Give the backbone structure.
Amino acid sequence: MKINSTRLAPTVPITVPAAASEKLAVVIPTQKFNLNYIEEEVLNRISQLYSDRYSLFLVVSEYSPINYENKGFKNIYLDPTFFFDDIQGYNSLCLDINFYKIFENYNFMLIHHLDAVILKDEIEHWISKNYSYIGGPSIHKSFFTKKPIAIKYFCNGGLSLRKNSDFIKVLNSKNIYFNNLDLNVIKALIKFKHMKQYFNLIYNNYQIKNYFDVQNFAKEYFLNEDFFWTILAKLFIKNFRLPDNILECANFSIDQGHKFYSTKHGVNPFGIHGYTEKNALYLKKLFKI
């Protein structure tokens, strides 16, 4: 059965009823109208692991013909003029409070892009950690060889576990808690080439409303959504929980430098992001998929 919510605009919230388990919704957003064999393999993997335990959703354009009900996926249709034009549209979707309200009957949401794949059935382990947000880290590359040399703190959104209630709290917040500034936030902002633009956005937000409105800030936000949730979200509510340890993020998911993590750090993650037709055979061999 499809969920026929054909036009989600920022002012039109919809909510899907919780089914199977209220603990988790697995959400696969895609602007595609046709899937290749690797992407279908990814959906099959999700279906095999979770269709009898959790609710599975494909978030697609209202014009999309994609239908995998036979694999246990329900479709949520969104207005493509809001969210599927480009990467900024997707970022806007992941910063829209109404997107999270669709799934507010679920405790957690696993965002799973079609270029990610789950390696191990341990989602319950990660849910039990009760993080507000976790995703795979980034890497520092050699200036000369461009090869990975160190892990950089980050939580990539392409395969990420999100606590819905905390995401809604962040986007409903009217506060900034500057005492939540930590080294990761400071380092990110110091290196941030758009710092002046950010401070202007914060200042203008206050000037217009005389209080800080995170929803308004998010609508004007201009970088990737996972930077917002990794670096900035903790400033807007007091207890937005992120992993302290970079390797904790890597054991959840890795996004690039797969061999670097596997051979140098012995990482065997829950899942990987960046699984495509070009590297599928290599990654299957590396991680024994």
